[in-house]
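tool_log.txt
---
The assistant was asked to compare two proteins side by side. It first ran the structure predictor on the initial sequence, then on the second. Raw inputs and outputs are pasted verbatim so the downstream comparison step can read them without reformatting.
(1)
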Amino acid sequence: MIRPGLIIVIVLLCVAEALPGSCQEGRQGERLSNTMPSLMDSIQFTQEIKFCEINIPHEILGIRQRLEKEILLAVHNRPQVILWMKRSARYFPIIEKILKQENLPLDLKYVPVVESALRPHSGSSKGAIGYWQFLKDTGKRYGLKIDDTIDERRNIFKSTQAASFYLKKLKTEFGSYLLALAAYNMGEFGLNTQIDIQETRDFFSLYLPLETQQYVFKIIAVKMILEQPEKYGFFLKASDLYPEFRFSKINFNLNTEIPIIMIAQAARIPFKTIKDMNPEIRGYHLDSGKITLLIPEGKEKGFKERFVKLLSESSQKYTRKFHVVQPGESLIRIAQQYEMTLASLLRLNNFSFKKVIHPGDRLLIR
């Protein structure tokens, strides 16, 4: 005689086997867990650790603690590490080429991973923008164009070149790439102050703001993980990674402002593609002057002829017309006067909804 409890067990087993892939998924999960190193395994430092050819003395307790913390936090955030790996395949070739040209260590390519996760539009509460998180004044000091129409902090080529100049200067000033990175994070004045107070230039002996201490060790941790991802349980195939950033360049000299959509039409690509490949462009128009833009490979064929034709056909349409703001006028009233939507007027002038106008201001209203 079969006991009632046994019948329930048998029924449950049958139901489980009837569910599509249930047992198979369980076995898959078990196999996956077997390939995942434990968190303790991920912080067993059995080999020498170097960054920019500097030995990281992980046998010292305080140093080991900081490095363990950054590795454990990074490895725990598995989606973020996967995105680092995928984006690095796209952008590291560009960064490495510029670092080589400037005779800088390739380990510095891990800095923008920590700064921005390799995202062009990344921003901080302090106003830092782009791959390398330049503040506006610092970016301009190192040759980046930053205004209402262009922000080269978002350009992977220009910002990496500027960062190379800046890091080279910091290395010369402080004599160590670890101190250079500390200064990159906290500023030269702040680091020099701490060096003077503590009377040491040894990075590992300096007591620095916690953010800066974490920052440098986070970069080292990122290097360790991205150089040996399998050790930390990340098994991505080449096909899983984003393809290397490839492009064609188009160069032209404008004697007037033009809408970006005209460039897109001449290249036979969507407006969005222009903005995605040239994230430094702000707004919807290009100013006059020399312009270099990136477009998908092959799309440069026939571009010049189509662009000249569109420019000629649209010369009347895109003639610049201005309105001089009078006392008491508002943006809404001006838009209504010229039978425009407020959004169109704002877009045409690269204004935000918070823009305040004053008598005498000139607004583009074509």
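(2)
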Amino acid sequence: MKQKSLKIILGTILTSLLIIFTSCQQVPNSKTATIRTAHSTWIEESFQTNIVNLGLEKLGYEVEKPKQIEYSAIYISMANGDLEYSTIYYQPSHEKFFEKAGGEEKLEKVGILTPDGMAGYQIDKKTADKYKITNIQQLKNPEIAKLFDWDKDGKANLVGCNPGWACELNIDHQIEAYGLENTVEHTRGQYNLLLLDAITRYKQGQSILYFAYNPHWISAILKPGKDVVWLEVPFTSFPDMRNITEKDTLLDGKNIGFSRTKQRIVANKKFLEANPVAKRWFELVEISVADMNAESLRIKEGEDKPEDILRHAQEWVKNHQQKYDRWLETARQAAN
């Protein structure tokens, strides 16, 4: 009888120890333990990807080296199950990429990675003040447009986006919607290189006109209100309006033509269903616009190698350690 009681007690102790040991493990409650991700050729996106991946590793996942491919391919790869997630959903400009890849049937938007971004058209303040330019539609005047004519073809050069980016389509649409086809041309290419050229021209005292968005280093160099100003637009217009209204495109009471943006994580829906810990982690991580602008500037100034950006991410985690650890603990609880 005593031996039987002893066996029961020992069995209970061993079971309890096993439960405690299991609960302390970092192995996720998942069907997929390896995570594949990608970001675009805009290398700033590797910063937030590293921040997210460092947490996933702490949660017990194996994370493959992120791929670097174009946005449309990222969405299709996630929908097909070739990637698990990406940090590159820009709301609302990436809605078409999202839907063309299968929409909510295959993908899911998660969390708010970077809130309160903005986008629109900017010109140097000196030119704005001298010629009283406040609205992009003033560029219908050929004499105003010529102020920004870099290649001397009679049209203003508007620095725009990389081919294939959603903002490229929006800019093309707005040039037509505002009746600017005869006086403004969309100069597209490698966005960062085009901006460096614009900064050089600005330093030489020339007038500049460009599409700007945050988070990005441009606002850390050419500061709105000091060096450059936002241009208003005559009305809100996009190729696909959806639920966007003028209220969504206002900044300090002025219509700047583009919605205030949020950067979110997007992931394969089946992966999220099988990985509640990863999903909860995606919901929690948040990086401020100011931090993203600062990182973008560090990259622009030469700290642009993969090892540099990984170090930046590790430094960011260390500087936000208490918050980061709380996020991790909350995510682990999703396994229960």
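---
observation on (2): The longest strand covers residues 107-124. Confidence is low (pLDDT under 50) at residues 1-32.
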